[in-house]
């Protein structure tokens, strides 16, 4: 367990402390200086965020398709799964053939689930594709 | 890895291969019967793959620090697999008339079974957590399977949030214990529970959180609030799954956590367990009294039952391991029967399952065979002699008497006494003749379906356990 009493004596501690104080100090300094030195004016549109001359829309009224959410979640899931491969990649030689077989199984299961997702139509997010799939399925049954 | 270790892991390989095969089969062609057939074949193969290790009798096989395959693990793996098979046959009968996609439920149930197997073999905090998540996350989707039903989705969301909270509590508890002692191995954790004292605040806080997390999954009072709601919202086969497989898997892990040290846990932990057990017995039984909904009633009855079962965690030893096995097996077969009947008399085509007690009034005069099975199972839940439930309760009381846990024993007696009232209330409702009803058998189709055969078998097994329990005790002996 770390001995907390001895921590302040280590040189890294003072360096880190100085850094933290510096970061907050710099932020405070910039905010205070601009508040003291900057001019102020009030108008109706002053407080709106400015984005390249285009009036920004109101995001609470924008309707996003739930399909995008699904695709984003798939992306996150596969991304996280791919992360595990990095752990294998850095220990490739140490893991040996056993590790290779295990990684192979892992990747093939990932591939199989991708096949499943494509086949059940989780990835066609355009309305036309979904409509076509539904018609195809109705024809089958 | 040696050949022996690979053989010990064979069930995991077989069930994982089954899961991938079922997934690919669905993606090639959606076919309800084919998917069910593949899953059942895979589960049977998994059950067979338990045999080599069990027959070899080489004692515990340690596979990496994470897992151990011993007698306890084999017994609970077998329980999980048999219960999953039962639920599969129910699913097949229940979802046949379901209009939307019905194949994925098998995938979810298989994934849950894999989690159950992992829990049964868990020998490390990491495996414990992975198993727990693998067991409960697929069931979130299972509870909300009928996505067009608002109630089911609500139940699923409830289960998701609450069970994630419970898992986080458990994880935090493990982290606290790890911070204080550096132990992650279940055997080391068990020793820590034995030696816990007031001088170790981190360990005590961690132990309390671990206990809370496990108690949530076993639905012990005061962590039981989700049980009736989720049981009610889930389709009947999924409810059966929650009541059997999930409980069996978590119980196996809890047993390992409390028994691995071979000595009773410290007085502080015993006190906490006793309070939880007594609260579950009394609150579960009392709340069940006023239920008009059969699924909710059974949820409260399961809360009371797991209160009874906690006695085996308080008094470790080979005797209480045996008792836990016997009690779990009898409870499993009985709940499978009860929820099976609910699944068979309901259909997903309707708005909701047949679950109101009033809908069961006089059902005997229309479906005499199913209701006979239902009656026998209810009597078993009540613990009437000659049924399996009696044997389980008897063994639990015997453990309590041997270890001088009189408070818990009197709790079991009181809880059972209240229990008889509400079980008999259901049974009497079944036999009340309804004016205007024709006394004809509604349909015989249940006998042809696999679900009916499964129910009949489980009733026979239940009666066999109750009349001649010797083999069951031998099997459950660690």
UniProtKB/TrEMBL annotation, chain A:
It is found in: Cell membrane; Membrane. Signal peptide: none annotated. The keyword Secreted does not apply. Its EC number is 7.1.1.-. GO terms for molecular function: NADH dehydrogenase (quinone) (non-electrogenic) activity; NADH dehydrogenase (ubiquinone) activity; quinone binding. The keyword Signal does not apply. Coiled coil: none annotated. It comes from the Bacteria. The chain crosses the membrane at residues 16-37, 68-89, 95-118. Keywords: Cell membrane, Membrane, NAD, Quinone, Translocase, Transmembrane, Transmembrane helix, Transport, Ubiquinone. Belongs to the complex I subunit 3 family. This is NADH-quinone oxidoreductase subunit A. It comes from Solimonas fluminis. The lineage of its organism: Bacteria, Pseudomonadati, Pseudomonadota, Gammaproteobacteria, Nevskiales. The gene is nuoA.
Automatic annotation (TrEMBL), chain B:
It is an enzyme of class 7 (translocase). The chain crosses the membrane at residues 6-27, 34-55, 75-93, 105-122, 128-147, 159-181, 201-220, 240-262, 268-290, 297-316, 328-349, 369-399, 405-424, 445-468. Keywords: Cell membrane, Membrane, NAD, Quinone, Translocase, Transmembrane, Transmembrane helix, Transport, Ubiquinone. It is a multi-pass membrane protein. It is found in: Cell membrane; Endomembrane system; Membrane. One of its GO terms (cellular component) is endomembrane system. HAMAP family: NDH1_NuoN_1 (MF_00445). Belongs to the complex I subunit 2 family. This is NADH-quinone oxidoreductase subunit N. It comes from Solimonas fluminis.
